[in-house]
Design a protein that fits this description.
10 strands
Length: about 190
């Protein structure tokens, strides 16, 4: 069965974007970090986004294939070619394909995708989407990239519900100072 990975970028004070959706703080030009993101993208068969995040990212990634930084261009090629599943109540208003709308019965749709053969799946962005996946307990792995930035205000990391997790990896990227925390659900054990 395929794993669904939540991969999210956050500031040290828990924000995923500035007050107006600003994301300039994630542009750190760290080849080691970008290589790790390429590794994640190469290991998945599809990506989930909320509609707003999907539309925002659709403005960036198609042109990024022409980046002078080869690692960013590779990241863009993967982002552009992978299937995108967009949690939305309305039709998609962009040509960033391949993409399809999901969410009429999210638990059933995700369960069916997880049972299909193939690589893992990833959930990248959108507070509403992340909350919906968490509320249905659909996330199998948590990857938080914590940036050494304090925004003071902005869009917070959405509620993920109560989960007992175990840290399986902690990696610091020296050039940017970003810390990757990779966590898995802690196996339920006997209660005392």
């Amino acid at each position: 069965m395929r794993t669904l990975i939540l991969s999210v970028m956050t500031t040290l004070d828990g924000f995923t974007a500035g007050p107006n959706g600003e994301l300039e703080w994630i542009d750190v030009a760290d080849d080691e970090l970008d290589s790790r993101i390429v590794e994640l993208l190469a290991g998945i068969d599809g990506m989930f986004f909320g509609r707003v995040a999907y539309e925002l990212l659709a403005q960036h990634w198609p042109a990024a294939e022409k980046s002078n930084r080869e690692i960013e261009a590779e990241q863009a090629r993967l982002m552009n070619s992978l299937p995108k599943y967009v949690l939305s109540r309305s039709s998609l208003a962009t040509d960033w394909r391949p993409a399809r709308r999901v969410g009429d019965d999210l638990p059933r749709e995700v369960a069916q995708m997880k049972e299909q053969p193939g690589k893992d799946l990833a959930l990248f962005a959108g507070a509403t989407a992340i909350s919906a996946f968490a509320s249905h307990d659909l996330i199998d792995e948590y990857r938080l990239m914590v940036f050494p930035v304090l925004l003071d205000k902005g869009m917070p990391l959405p509620p993920l519900g109560r989960r007992n997790l175990r840290l399986v990896e902690s990696t610091t990227f020296a050039q940017s100072g970003v810390v990757l925390l990779r966590c898995l659900p802690r196996a339920a054990g006997p209660t005392a």
